[in-house]
Amino acid sequence: MAERERSHTRPLGGVFVAHSQLLSAADVQRALTRMAHEIVERNGGIEDVVLVGLQTGGIPLANRMAEALSQIENAEVAVGSLDVAFYRDDIGLRPVLPEAVTNIPGDLAGKVVVLVDDVLFTGRTIRAALNALNDFGRARAVQLAVMIDRGHRELPIRPDYVGKNLPTNREEMIDVGDDGVWIGTLEDK
Amino acid sequence: MTQPRHLLSVADLGTDGIAEVLRVAEAFAEVERRSMPKVPTLRGKVVATLFFEESTRTRLSFETAAKRLSADVLSLTMANSSVKKGESLRDTIETVEAMGIDAVIIRHSSSGAPHQVARWLTRARVINAGDGWHEHPTQALLDCFTVRQVLAERKGVAPEDLGIGCFEGLRVLIVGDVRHSRVARSEVLAYTALGAHVTLAAPGSLLPPSLEGWPVEVATNFDAALADADVVSLLRLQAERGSGSFVPSLREYTAGWGLTARRVQRLSDAAIVTHPGPMVRGVEIASDVADLPRTVVTQQVTNGVAVRMAILFLLLGGEWPGGDPHG
């Protein structure tokens, strides 16, 4: 793990430079498995559960979460992806562009949606995601699963399932990848 | 990607810009497929359509796009505006800007009118919805978008995953009244920027007086050019711009340059036929040909909304005057 190009944040993106590792790949997998058990416990199974990964960091986690859930419950769980660009509250304040095409599996009416994201920070992405989900039907409940809760909330939003709570400085950046979780900074390209 | 203030010509975008429009339009095409196809993206923005020339589909398409983005839409038809009372274009535009309008979508019979309007405006963005014989950029963009969609569908992949590589070496044949066609000019710019080869096929009288500097070829043998084409872009004879006097008769034009049921046989099985509409069945396209699956006119109209949503979003939502980069 050295540097990764990021299209998000800073006008026109930047390069994430890692400083130190916070969780190993195995730690992330253990946290995912634990969160999967919590989801099953809270909802008494996964019958009406739909996982929705947030573009882009939440998608691989949602897929791995689905795998963990199907191993626990021996059943398939629907997985979708959501890009919140069109619902953001900072359009016109910073570069906001969709990262990918949204893909929600069917009508969400009556379902329990578990939003999955890599890092929970200000909460503004989740606010936008809640708005976006409304357009796909009235879910019975929406829950939030994040690998890292780094604090600094600007809105009254809290996660239901957390991989790890991690106090950070605002300037720092968290990167969740296949090789674990790293803390670092975003440098200009 | 450079951020153009206005969309006056396809050339304002460059290859990267066109690729970005196609990518973002794919995200809006998904919005269009929803049962509730509306997003709050441009809430509070005001968009005005100023059509100094009649049009149904382009105006409807732009207004639908703006409404699906939650922008407010003002529709000025010049037939019953103060223009008829003798107001100059400049005064009309200044009135519009004074009302705090964020984007002006303009169609005008004079080539260059949107450029002039863009110079007068200080704040609002201008989108060219067709000016004289000059350009119709959103039409060319939606044509490219539709072609990519068809190619992706045949390959069984998502269009956004094809990128713009699918245009490399694609043979595009533009047929008909190139001389009077703003669609043709924008298509030449868009397709060639994406790496396609463009060939024109038209009677000499309907070719532009000079093709100097155009990155195109002219077909010497129409039937052979049809056999080579991956995409055939048909143009309408612009009777209102006097095309009629450039051909001996409509029947003769159809016999020589129309896509008749017999001529369509020359196309390869994979060839796609596009038409910017409105089609004149029996003149540039036979009625049976217009209804073939390879003729993608309906998809073009549908895609027009997504592509125009992308343009409005990129021009009105893409600005970033500072702000918290980490927000």
Give an account of the 3D structure.
The complex is a heterodimer of chains A (189) and B (327). Chain A is α/β, with parallel strands linked by helices and 189 residues long. Helices cover 24% and strands 32% of the residues of chain A. Chain A has a single domain, classed as Rossmann fold, CATH 3.40.50. Chain A contains 3 helices and 9 strands, in the order ββαβαββαββββ. In chain A, helix 1 crosses helix 2. The longest helix of chain A has 19 residues, at 25-43. Chain B has a 5-stranded parallel beta sheet with strand order 7-6-5-8-9, with helices on both faces. Chain B has a 4-stranded parallel beta sheet with strand order 2-1-3-4, sandwiched between helices. Chain B has 2 domains: 10-135 and 302-316, 3-Layer(aba) Sandwich (Rossmann fold), CATH 3.40.50.1370; 138-299, 3-Layer(aba) Sandwich (Rossmann fold). Mean pLDDT of chain B is 92; it is low at 320-327. The chains are: A alpha/beta (189), B alpha/beta (327). At the A-B interface, loops of A face helix 1 of B.
- Report mean pLDDT of chain B, rounded to a whole number: 92
Give the strand content of chain A: 25-35%
Question: What's the end-to-end separation of chain A, in Å?
Answer: 17 Å
- Please state the structural category of chain A: alpha/beta
CATH superfamily of the largest domain in chain B: Aspartate/ornithine carbamoyltransferase
CATH class of chain A: Alpha Beta
Tally of contiguous helical segments of chain B: 11
Class of the largest domain in chain B in CATH? Alpha Beta
- Biggest chain-to-chain interface with counts: A-B, 29 and 32 residues
The strand order across the widest sheet of chain B is 7-6-5-8-9
Low-confidence stretches of chain B: 320-327
Domain count of chain B = 2
In short:
The complex is a heterodimer of chains A (about 190) and B (about 325). With about 190 residues, chain A is an alpha/beta fold. Chain A contains three helices and nine strands, in the order ββαβαββαββββ.
